[in-house]
Amino acid sequence: MAHFRKLLVSEATAASVVLGIVLIIPFMLSFNPYYVSIFISALILGAVSIAWNLLAGVCGQVSFGHAAFFGIGAYASAILVTKGGLDPYISMLGGGLCGVLGSLVIGLPAFRLRGPYFALAILGFAEVAKLVTMNLTWLTEGSRGIMNIPPLPAIHLGFLTLDFYISRTTNYYMAAVLMLAIYLTVYFIRRSNAGLAMSAVHGDEETAAGIGVHVVKTKALALAVSAFCTAIMGAFYAHYVRFLSPDTAFEGSWSVMPIVASLFGGMHTLIGPVAGALVITGLDEFVFKRLFETGHKLFFGLLLAVVIVWAPTGLLGNRVRKTFHGEK
Amino acid sequence: MTSTTSIIQSILSGVIEGTDYALYCLGLAFVFGIMRIINLAHGELLVLGGYIAYWLLVKWGVNPVLAIPIAAGAAGGMALLSYRVFLQRIRTGSELNTLILTFGLGIFLANLFLQLWTADIRTIGVDWMEQPLMLFGIYISLGEITAITISLVVVLGLHFFLTRSKMGMAIRVTAIDRDSAALAGINVERADLVAFSIGGVLAGVGGPLLGMLAHISPGAGVAITVKAFVLTVLAGVGSIPGLIVAGIILGVGEAMTVTFTNASYRELFGFVLFLLILLVRPQGLFGRRL
What is Dmax (Cα atoms) for chain B? Predict the structure, then answer.
């Protein structure tokens, strides 16, 4: 058993390794704009997956509709800037808060019941959010979409100017910073009393309630934080691609891919989803899309089924020690 | 502009549509009621049946009504295969795992349809189905009458299978108490396999009807699955006659939404109804207390 124990690393070590890889990816791609833009999507996906996994891996509630929060965040931020004239950095926060509002609408009725109600309710919520966006034409321009969304304003750091209008690399590192912020948020929540309550709910709801955990509030908190982070990434996406339509912002992939990334990377860890996101983005771009041009996502469906049956711990699941409350 | 006749007409078309909804949902409601598994690939199994009827009609001119048994067989076979290869292995694990698994199977199927048959929207159109009939001063098409007849036949057939046949009774006993059923000599594994496959067969029956009365596309499955779950909850889990009532409520509500507001808000009605049911009466209209 001794050599097995050597393989086990702590969450912090695994996170440092993965984030180190994230840091050097643009150098490995020699700053080729096309490949960098693929990995920007991977980082956005990675960040959304961390948020998804707070709800699923920590609190035990699976969401099949995170596209709703992503789209709400993207649209809210774009509208606040184009119609409200807000600074994009502030409007991104506004987008996050709108995501929280959306999470309350769906979470409070659905969490009162145990079982699959929440999973199905949120699946429907994602459809409805897209439908409403498509029909509120006075606000969202309907299916025509919002064009010419301003990029994030340049940041001046002494001699260095970070420009988001032209440079893909700047956008890449901005996505990395946001992902790191979301990771740290989830990391510290996991170690707080609230995180402990979430774990208890995941383990056994009745026991959790018995020791004084407010189950509905705990689930709603996990969903609200998860929705906030997801909506922030949606807002970043809006200012990065600078065009939104209901079909792209609420695209089903934003619901599906975080599930695949988290399961593939390892739901019991916090950094696993990021590793999963990087690997599946690479697989999709360089393998799946070349095999099946239109139906390449069928591999992700199959991957979900295979992982859940034969490898439920995922890529990093057996390598990373579970972190517990208060552990260093 | 909403005269009395148009209201009556929209109520009637809602009732007709509601009966079809009950059929589209039967497979999911049955599997959930018996096995406590939500089959998130239900909608895709239904769409699979629709595609099979579509291609049988386009390639060989097979009457869609005659294509129903073939479509049902294909969807049932797919369900059987999914259960044997994947579901059986994690049946005893957590409920979330079966949800994620069937969700993955649904994505697999939807993208398989996309790869094989492109994203085009297909309609199964046959001339005789468009024939309008005048019944008590209201127009109703022959296709709609066929669909209602098939719905009722399938619901009755399922009812008699569950109450009269040996296998049906074995499935019911297994659902009530698995251990006692096994002690009484029932092959519970087989009962589960058959029950899940029947869910697939029921979905496959709905597919050709969906293609006849509306249309099918690779992504159409999710909306069907959600609607099926809404109806299952509205009816109360385990109540099959309740499904027809719930289907009619949904159908009429949607028709009214179209008449009084905007046609694009049609889908919203079912979702708002669902949230209300969760808040006010989570056990459903005809279910026992949770």
Answer: 65
Query: In the beta sheet, which residues pair with residue B135?
Result: B138
Average per-residue pLDDT for chain B: 87
**Which residue of A lies nearest to B225 if distances are taken between CA atoms?**
A120
ipTM rounded to 2 decimals: 0.87
Task: Give the A-side interface with B, CB within 8 Å.
Answer: 56, 60, 62, 64, 106, 109-110, 112-113, 115-117, 119-121, 123-125, 127-128, 131-132, 134-135, 252, 256, 259, 263, 292, 294-298, 300-305, 308-309, 312
Is a pLDDT exceeding 90 seen at residue B76?
Answer: yes
- For residue B104, give Cα distances in angstroms to A166, A260, A266, A297, B227: 38, 9, 17, 10, 19
pLDDT at B166 over 70: yes
Q: Do A308 and B229 touch (CB under 8 A)?
A: no
pLDDT greater at residue A255 or residue B286: A255
Is B212 in contact with B64 (CB distance < 8 Å)? yes
CB contact under 8 A, B101 and A60: no
* B262 vs A contacts (CB less than 8 Å): 135
